[in-house]
Structures are given as structure tokens and as C-alpha cells.
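re: that chain from earlier
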Amino acid sequence: MHNLLRFIKLNHFLLLFILIEGISITLLLQNNSFQASKTVAYSTQYTSAFYNSTSSLADYMALKETNDFLVTENAKLYSLLNRDEQFDDSLLIRNKDYNYIPAKVINNSVNKRNNFITLNKGLVNGIENGMGVITQNGVLGVVHSVSENYALVLSVLHKKAATGIFLKKNRHTGILKWQGFDYKSTVIKDLPVHIPLSIGDTIITNSYSNIYPESINIGNISSFVKNADDGFYTVNVRLFEDFNNLKYVYVVKSNQAEEQIILEQIMTHE
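^ sequence. v structure.
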């Protein structure tokens, strides 16, 4: 109470001015309909602007939840599409059955010799070692190790990474590797020189592995030269995905991988 009285005493001129101004504005609005309407209009304008800003902030705060929902729904659609039957040379065949687990990138590197990507999903979400990781733009890598709630992905930008590829236009196959320099580019060195190549040719995943579905985009040819000593090209591939700007990904689960592995192991031991 003592502090309140002290405040009033120190600021009595200011308080008196505010009181007089308030009375003046009230009398003005009561006796002048034009000024009253203008005041209401301005008040509505600024109040609306305030609420609009508040609404925009709320929309922004809800954006993350919306993104997570859309990523999950996209994963469901991918899985359904891969169960669809397709025609090939008049024979009805079923593609390998893949499921897609959405995840968020929480750590990533592109400027090291051996780069990894950390995801916010793990064993409790069904992720296992050896699963492929992709985005809508292309291939990212293979799950290297998993804990209960996290997964570490061996990036395509790693000296041990080797991705089986097709040339989309003629189905010739090769191995994609990273040279350790530019995170936007990788190299193929096992394509024979008799294969016709063109700048811009698209590189996709091949069908010889259960890590990725066939025909996932990887990149396109930016340049190539014939090696004089071995009869192969050195092909530079510009990656479709920007590894320096990763946010949401899909972890690829092949429901038939175990069966294929067991069968191939039997053949190996015969």
C-alpha cells in the first residue's frame, strides 16, 4: 500500500493527464458519430491485424505436426502403390512388397570422407540394419546401426558405400561410389566404353538387391570420359537429392528380403 501511494505521488501529473484525456475522448465519441465510427473502424483494423498475426503464429506452430502427418500418409501411399499389380510383356507379376517407415533427419554430415545420417526412429519403429533410406528425390544410404529410438545411416557419401545402378535408358548396370570431394556428385567406373552414353542420362537403382526397390532415382550424368587403360568410362553423376538439406526420409523395408537371403545362402553352401 505504501508503494502504491508513493507511485501516485510521484506520477500524479501523468495520471491526471491520462484521466483528462480519457474523459475527453469519451465525450467526443458520445457527441460526434463521425469520430465514433472512425475510431471503431481503426480499432477493428488493428484488432483484426493482431488476431491475424496470432492466427499465423498458431498456424506456424501447427506446421510441424502437419508435416509429420503428411510424411506418414505418404509412406502409407508408397506401401500401397508397391502392392499394386503391374503388367510386363503381357505377364501379370507382383513387385516386391516394400513398406516405408517415415523418419526425420536429426544429424547429418557432408564434408567428411565418411558421412553418416542420424534418424529419429529405431528398433521400436521396426527399423533394422541393412534397410535402405530414400527420399522423394533419390537414394540416401543404408542403415548401419540401430538403437531403440535412433538409426545411423551409412550415407551414399561414404567411402564404403556402393550402390547398384541401372542406366535408365538401356538397363546397363554398374556401381555408384563417392570420391570424397563434392557432396553433390558421385562416380561410376565400371561401365564398358561400348555402351552409348549421353550427358543428362538418368541413373536409377537396379533390381539386384533387396535394399531398394528398382527404379528409384539417383541422379543424372553430368560428364564422362573413356579411360585409355581399361576399356571403361569414368562417369560423373549429379545427385538429385541435396544432401546438405535433408529433413524427412523413408526407411525401406522389404518384406521378402529374409526369404531371398536364406535361399541365396543355401546356394552358397552347396
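The helical segments are 2-10, 12-31, 33-81, 257-268.
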